[in-house]
Amino acid sequence: MSLIICLFNQAGGVGKSTLAINLGYHLAQLKPAKTKHHYRVLLIDIDPQASLTNFMGIAPESQEKTIYNAVIDQEALPILKEIHGMDFVPSSQDLTSAELELVVADMRDLRLKYALEPVSEQYDFILIDCPPSLGILTYISLVASTHVLVPIQTQYKAFLGTELLLNTVTRVKSLPNRKLKIAGFIPTMFDSRNSQDERTLLAIQEQLSQVGIVYDPIPRSTAFADAAEENVPLAIFNPKHPALSILKKIVKGLEKLL
């Protein structure tokens, strides 16, 4: 059974897409114990902004089929094979209308869950990059997932939004997806020279560790943006970057969820 992990935060700019490509890449580099094969990883971009699609080197407007067709038209997932060792389902601006179309769609809560069912056994990990909102696309992603992974920027304003985020997870767990679990929290864009970042990180560690594991913070670094501009994971762009050790610890934690 695959782990379906949605990266979710209603705030934008917290690093969801960056984490999706980098965590997916490191998961795909791991081999399960006593096997010769690496983990099979599928990334899904369900954000109309299509940041992850661009990071993967795919022009959204060039794709005839995207996640929109799977969710709205109930077609098979349009899976692009073997990009940096991962499979990928792209997004496009068509998703901007999907929120309105899903309002009146039959079985809307389960549209993504049903789309994943035919392929879920083909993968060990499916990572879903959610929109920065609490709309229907995020909701159906939570319904379809086994776990939710929460990136949180180490800024006080971003930390304040976690209560609303956790309330949304609780609402999904109350009925449509009672088995949904929190995979953890990842502090992002951390600057150890900034006292506000230090205070916010401490608050995240103290308060959210009661809900789920709080991983080591991802440092603020222009290398992530540079790697994304080159359409590659950070490990390919800069194999010696210090943030790689933190990313590897996180994927080891995700591996334990299997």
TrEMBL record:
Coiled-coil regions listed in the entry: none
Gene3D superfamilies: P-loop containing nucleotide triphosphate hydrolases
Source superkingdom: Bacteria
InterPro entries tied to this protein: AAA_dom, DNA_Partitioning_ATPase, P-loop_NTPase
Entry-linked Pfam families: AAA_31
Residue ranges of every copy of the AAA domain listed in the record: 4-182
UniProt-listed PANTHER family: P-LOOP CONTAINING NUCLEOSIDE TRIPHOSPHATE HYDROLASE, PARA FAMILY PROTEIN CT_582
The family this protein is said to belong to: Belongs to the ParA family.
Protein name as annotated: Cobyrinic acid a,c-diamide synthase
Top-level taxonomy: Bacteria, Bacillati, Cyanobacteriota, Cyanophyceae, Nostocales
